[in-house]
Specification:
- The chain is built from 2 helices and no strands.
- By secondary structure, the protein is mainly α.
Length: 159
């Protein structure tokens, strides 16, 4: 009996040690699970903040692109008007050359109009290039947002 009692006490001791070890492991795993939950929540918040930031940038770029488009349209209109004026000045110049009256003044007006036209043409070309660059940036941001959505969908499916 004493021997059996000692054997049973030894087994109980071993089982208590095993139980404590498993309880410790369980506490560690629960703590790690909680840390992972907190980490995932923070990552989700960071991702959401990044998406919002990208959306704000996209809205800002869209506003800039609209403004650039409007500016380019105005410059095109001004360019067309100046071309009409240039043709009128050239016609006036030809008429004056035929009549030989006021030839120097007409040449000066035509030259002035030509210089103005060239300046406006250069400015409008620059604005159009900027508009195209803005459109490319918008496309890049749109592609980035698409890939972020795909990443979010994949991570949600994986959980």
């Amino acid at each position: 009996l004493k021997e059996e009692n000692a054997t049973l006490r030894s087994k109980i001791s071993k089982l208590q040690v095993l139980s404590e070890t498993q309880a410790d492991k369980m506490k560690k795993l629960e703590k790690k699970l909680e840390e992972n939950k907190i980490k995932e929540e923070k990552e989700a918040q960071d991702l959401e903040a990044m998406v919002q930031h990208v959306e704000q940038n996209l809205q800002l770029m869209t506003k800039r692109a609209v403004k650039a488009e409007n500016s380019a349209a105005k410059l095109r209109q001004e360019n067309a008007l100046l071309q009409v004026q240039l043709r009128n000045y050239q016609a006036e110049n030809e008429a004056l050359q035929l009549g030989q009256a006021g030839l120097a003044a007409a040449k000066q007006n035509a030259e002035l109009a030509l210089q103005h036209l060239l300046r406006v043409t250069t400015t409008s070309q620059t604005s159009i290039r900027q508009l195209l660059s803005g459109a490319e940036s918008l496309q890049l941001v749109a592609d980035l947002l698409k890939s972020i959505d795909r990443i979010s969908e994949v991570s949600e499916d994986g959980q």
